[in-house]
Amino acid sequence: MIRLPVRLVQGLALMSTGALAGAFGYGAANLVPTFNAVPLDMRLSFHTQLMQMNGITMQAAMGTSALSALVLAALTHGVARRLAAATGILVIASFLITRLGNVPINGRIKQWAATSAPADHAEILSRWEAFNYARTATAFAAFALLILLSLRRSHSPRDPNDSP
């Protein structure tokens, strides 16, 4: 059986979850206001291209974040296990919000970019933004829990699974 060093898994979880929170945070703070500041046809074209590019990278970040957090939970005990498990659950929530909320709307936006937006497009885009803020919040909460875990572990005795 391969014994993974806890600190290595923790570092991977921290890095990937930080990248995920940073990407979602950048989108919420910069892309969404930009989407709302440009003409609708420009937003639809840019949004469609952005989602095409984001598909693989964001799924990889979410997968790596969730998997590393859950492996960290399996390798630790007590409060550390609960924090790591909660992190994994929050990242999975970000994935589900994206998959069930944002992705279907992205498909509609792609259609609109090729044709035209329906009369209720503002309401639908507003829903996309609400899902975006929700997934951003869950990603930031996951990252905050990993930071807390890292700060806590830096003051606790060395884990026997850690490599020197």
Percentage beta strand: under 5%
Tally of alpha and pi helices: 4
Mean pLDDT across residues: 91
Low-pLDDT sequence parts? none
Could you describe the 3D structure shown?
With 164 residues, the chain is an all-alpha fold. It has 4 helices and no strands. The model has no long low-confidence stretch (mean pLDDT 91). The protein has helices at residues 6-37, 40-75, 78-114, 121-153. The two termini are 19 Å apart.
In short:
The chain is mainly alpha-helical.
List the main descriptive attributes of the protein structure presented here.
164 residues, mainly alpha, 4 helices, 0% strand, elongated
What is the secondary structure topology, with strand pairs?
Layout: H1 6-37, H2 40-75, H3 78-114, H4 121-153
Helix pairs in contact: 1-2, 1-4, 2-3, 3-4
